[in-house]
Amino acid sequence: MRHQGRLKRAFLSSILLSLALAAGLHAEDQPQHQAADAQAQAVTGKNLLANERFWPYHVELTKPWQGAGRSQPLPAGSMGVLIRVEASGLARIDFGRDGLDEVPIEATDLVEDANRIREGKLRKLAPNFVIAIGSRLVDSAGPTLRPYPAAAAATQQGFLAVFADPGADDFAALAEALAPLSKREGVLTILFPQGEHPDDKIREKLSSLGWTVPFVYDFLADTYTRSLVDAKVRLPAIVLQTKEGRVLFQGTWSADAAPKLAAALDDAFGSTSDTAAVVAPERS
């Protein structure tokens, strides 16, 4: 079973490489990604959250797991995409057609493969969130629809994911409040549009507001929203995360969220005037 898993992992890695090249992540364009560091401390379940650079993109169940709401357990050998390791110590994994689940780390090969990446025995193409999102972004800054350069996304240290409906009455206020952060170096703001809107209309809306941040293709937004946003968080929501997907701040966008977001940005990426300019929405 484990041997078959390794073969499947190698196959998926080759597919990821092909997709990355097709998306424009050519070696000459992207920053060199060197995840291996054999001199680093061994990864364990206890220090996994602090060792995100070694997180594998794919993970496999090493024992059956039956999460809440499942009529039967997922069998050992089930493979999924690691969304992130939560502060609780659980691994948030997207199993594709088998759904999303939060799984105890010890029920997966996560630690084992993190150490294989650390030792240089398992190749990691790029930071996990860059792989997940890099080829699925639209550039709203141009006069027509065009892909956002994946190589530009690959240079970022963090991402501010915004989950909001461009057709909502309060969308303009949200865009105005978050606009200063779109100019922040090293942190890319991405819109995950809610509702059903043609991509060209989303581009026009962002352009008219002067908030020309990249956005995810509309037909993919719902899937990403389910994967990235905790089910307990109401929309519109914001998720600040690292390039590997580790959450630094998550919450519903509101007057209370603005200073917390600014503090999380400053703590993780340093203080700037752009952070200070974030405008809290007025309470209704």
Could you give the topology of this structure?
Elements: H1 2-22, E1 58-60, E2 79-85, E3 90-94, E4 100-104, H2 110-118, H3 128-133, E5 137-138, H4 150-153, E6 158-164, H5 171-178, E7 187-193, H6 199-209, E8 215-216, H7 218-228, E9 237-242, E10 247-252, H8 257-269, H9 273-276
Parallel strand pairs: 6-7
Antiparallel strand pairs: 1-2, 2-3, 3-4, 5-8, 6-9, 9-10
Describe this structure in words.
A hairpin with a 4-residue loop joins strand 9 and strand 10. Mean pLDDT is 88; it is low at 13-30. The chain folds into two domains: 2-125, SH3 type barrels (Roll), CATH 2.30.30.40; 131-276, 3-Layer(aba) Sandwich (Glutaredoxin), CATH 3.40.30. A four-stranded antiparallel β-sheet has the order 1-2-3-4. A four-stranded mixed β-sheet has the order 7-6-9-10. The chain has a two-stranded antiparallel sheet with strand order 5-8. The protein is globular and about 50 Å long. It has helices at 2-22, 110-118, 128-133, 150-153, 171-178, 199-209, 218-228, 257-269, 273-276, and strands spanning 58-60, 79-85, 90-94, 100-104, 137-138, 158-164, 187-193, 215-216, 237-242, 247-252. It is an alpha+beta fold.
